[in-house]
Design a protein that fits this description.
Oligomer: heterodimer
Structural class of chain B: mainly alpha
Largest interface: A-B, 16 and 15 residues
CATH architecture of chain B: Up-down Bundle
Number of domains of chain B: 1
Largest sheet of chain B: none
Shape of chain B: elongated
Strand order of the largest sheet of chain A: 4-3-7
Number of domains of chain A: 2
Radius of gyration of chain B: 15 Å
Number of strands of chain B: 0
Helix content of chain B: over 70%
Shape of chain A: globular
CATH superfamily of chain B: F1F0 ATP synthase subunit C
Largest sheet of chain A: 3 strands, antiparallel
Strand content of chain B: under 5%
Helix content of chain A: 55-70%
Order of helices and strands of chain B: HH
């Protein structure tokens, strides 16, 4: 009986979570179709705060016609346009006379990226302050949050870092892997809220995260690693020259695959939710409102089930990102003994 | 491309369930490996899916 009511209340919670997305789809209607899929997942210069839009400040680094670079800040897009120095040309703000160098404006994806990192920072600082007070170093840790922190940290240290990075070097990389795992998990889970934007559903954000992994991997590469990239030992001379572009491309495809995997999983989840809920609006326009009511039962049920799947995918993708980062770091840090028989050393190529 | 992903993940599931049947003690390890491999294959399938969606709706 209790189990039935638990399941029912969970279902109702997930059902209710689908409501505000309905309003979100309705608000951005244009005359081609009732729903605007790409417009909702794209980056915005406003931040939806319980139904209203908060316009975010714009910061521009631009160059005048005279050649002097200037840095201007405006409270919102409207004020930037009203000041007369900027104009809007097809969704892009450009200076009237001059050219834009770098657009540092705050957007909603950037804000959610900071929320994810901020949540992680608060969590870690809370745990750190508890450890400094002595709870948990000599006695058992007390409280839910501190134990949760220990669960995640030991998971990263024992399951992700230690099996993949050999020797004692895994201790250096556990903080980086912990940060990656927790911040991506937080960002993905924040994106599940209907009015929120998933920060990782943006290729620029995932490219930045993958480039962090790339730089950490390259800066911790041993001499063996660079030798394998540029002058592969143990093969005939002609093959050595052939291996240089092959290894260089392999060096770059691995973080590229990391970025695209995370981006595609998050964005496809968001698009599926908007599309299936937007089916209601499409049916409304094509067949009248009775059909819309009918299909809404199907749509909302399917959306609730999809939400549970997306929750699993969010955490799983964070785990896979950090696991593959650990594998790449382990491959770069690995030192094996050189002997004459280098030909039969098989290199695993993980550019999925 | 969705069919390819479906066939791939189906083969993984078949291998996983058969090996759990042969050795039930290792079911924890096998479950972990199965979920990991399924996520990889789904990543590859979603590469193409995202490109199709962006081309169709962009």
């Amino acid at each position: 009986m209790i189990k039935f009511f638990t399941f029912l209340s969970l279902f109702i919670v997930v059902f209710l979570l689908g409501q505000p997305t309905v309003f979100a789809a309705d608000a951005d209607a244009d005359n081609e179709s009732p729903i605007d899929i790409m417009g909702t997942v794209a980056d915005h210069d406003y931040f939806t705060f319980f139904g209203t839009k908060l316009y975010l400040p714009r910061l521009f680094l631009w160059q005048d016609d005279n050649g002097s670079t200037q840095f201007s800040t405006y409270g919102s897009t409207k004020k930037a346009l009203a000041s007369g120095e900027f104009e809007q040309v097809e969704y892009v703000i450009t200076p009237v006379n001059g050219s834009m160098l770098i657009d540092f404006s705050l957007t909603s994806h950037l804000l959610y990226f900071w929320f994810g990192l901020g949540a992680l920072a608060l969590f870690t600082m809370y745990a750190g302050s508890r450890y400094k007070k002595g709870i948990g170093t000599s006695t058992a840790p007390k409280g839910v949050l501190q134990n949760l922190f220990e669960v995640f940290y030991e998971f990263i240290r024992d399951e992700v870092a230690k099996p993949n990075i050999e020797g004692d070097k895994h201790k250096k990389y556990v903080p980086y892997l912990f940060t990656m795992f927790m911040s991506i998990a937080f960002m993905n889970i924040f994106g599940l809220l209907p009015w929120a934007a998933t920060a990782t559903a943006d290729i620029t954000v995932t490219a930045v995260l993958a480039s962090f992994t790339f730089f950490v991997t390259q800066f911790s590469g041993t001499k063996d690693h660079w030798q394998h990239v540029f002058w592969f030992p143990g093969v005939p001379l002609g093959v050595k020259f052939l291996m240089i572009p092959v290894e260089l491309i392999g060096l770059f495809t691995k973080p590229f695959a990391l970025a695209i995997r995370l981006f595609a999983n998050m964005m496809s989840g968001k698009i599926m939710i908007i599309a299936i809920l937007g089916l209601i609006f499409i049916f409304n326009e094509m067949y009248g409102s009775i059909a819309a009511y009918g299909v809404s039962i199907f749509s909302v049920v399917v959306t609730s089930i999809l939400y549970i799947l997306k929750l699993l995918v969010a955490i799983l993708q964070a785990y896979i990102f950090s696991l593959l980062s650990a594998v790449f770091i382990g491959m770069a840090v690995e030192e094996h003994e050189h002997d004459q028989e280098h030909d039969d050393h098989i290199h695993a190529d993980l550019s999925v | 491309m969705a069919v390819g992903a479906g066939i791939g993940i189906g083969l993984i599931g078949k291998g996983a369930v058969e090996s759990i049947a042969r050795q039930p003690e290792a079911s924890g390890d096998i479950r972990g490996a199965m979920i990991l491999t399924a996520a990889f294959i789904e990543g590859v399938a979603l590469f193409g899916a995202i490109i199709c969606i962006i081309l169709a709706l962009g």
